[in-house]
Design goal:
Udp-n-acetylmuramoylalanyl-d-glutamate--2,6- Diaminopimelate Ligase, Chain: A, domain 1; five-stranded mixed beta sheet; about 270 residues; six-stranded mixed beta sheet; single chain; alpha/beta; elongated
């Protein structure tokens, strides 16, 4: 008997438990049926029309994404709308879509840990601990330390190299020493107060605002905005590899791959 969508959902539950998701979030099965067979899985950041179309064309049975396809409640499924057209495409090709969002942000070894390790942080703690859990490894953001102190601009340059990106936005004195670092994958503005109270010298995130930068200046700390896409896209390959290992352990023969053509929607000219 081939594996089913339900079998893969159980594996994803071990990676990013649903109970960790925020109440406002919409994680789990977005489109499809749990008893559908699965022979091919693809992992992507976003369920965009071109991502879904390519997956359908490649005969993918299950598309796993970080950002949910259905975020706000739908009043109708109009195939003429972007979301409706994706639902229609997926159903016609009998391809399920599954999302792991804030649960994957908060869980140990999730998005924030992957980002923190990638930029060289050690001795990690949670920046905004999950109030519903006593587990110190669950929650939004991470705080960690570099092996040695480094100037803000020099650190920003190292981040560009380690993440393979051309540009970052930096606020703060260029030569300020950085040792303790806070990170939050995705949009980090909501955790600015957590950053200020953490004692970290710099905060790395995406979608940071003008007034966040002014507040950081006043507090004599630094900000490095690496962009929403860059801060989260690292998890795509990680989830694909983690699922591969779990599938091998369970003896399930399924092809799994990471989507290879997603790019940041913002282009700096």
């Amino acid at each position: 008997m081939p594996a089913t969508i339900s079998d893969i959902i159980n594996l994803m539950e071990s990676i990013a438990p649903t109970f960790l998701a925020e109440e406002w979030d919409n994680v789990g099965l977005q489109v499809g049926q749990k008893d559908w067979p699965v022979r091919t899985i693809q992992v992507a950041l976003d369920p965009l029309p071109d991502v879904v179309a390519a997956a359908c064309s490649d005969g993918v049975d299950l598309l796993i994404t970080h950002h949910p396809l259905i975020f706000q409640p739908l009043k109708s499924v109009d195939f003429g709308t972007p979301v409706g057209s994706i639902i229609n495409m997926a159903i016609r090709h009998r391809m399920a879509i599954f999302a792991a969002h804030t649960n994957l942000d908060k869980v140990a070894d999730g998005v924030n840990d992957v980002l923190a390790h990638r930029i060289g942080l050690k001795n990690l703690e949670v920046l905004a601990k999950d109030r519903e859990s006593d587990d110190k490894i669950q929650g939004f953001g991470r705080i960690g330390e570099l092996e040695k102190s480094i100037g803000l601009v020099s650190f920003a340059s190292e981040i560009k190299k380690s993440l393979g990106i051309k540009t970052v936005k930096v606020a703060g004195k260029p030569d300020m020493p950085v040792k303790k670092v806070a990170v939050c994958a995705g949009s980090g503005s909501s955790l600015m107060d957590n950053f200020f109270s953490s004692g970290a010298h710099v905060y790395i995130s995406g979608d940071l605002r003008y007034h966040d930068a002014r507040a950081a200046e006043a507090a004599r700390v630094g900000l490095i905005d690496i962009g929403h896409f860059t801060s989260e896209h690292l998890i795509v390959e990680t989830i694909a590899e983690r699922l591969k290992r779990l599938l091998v352990k369970t003896g399930i023969d399924i092809e799994i791959k990471a989507c290879g053509f997603e790019t940041d929607p913002f282009v700096i000219l």
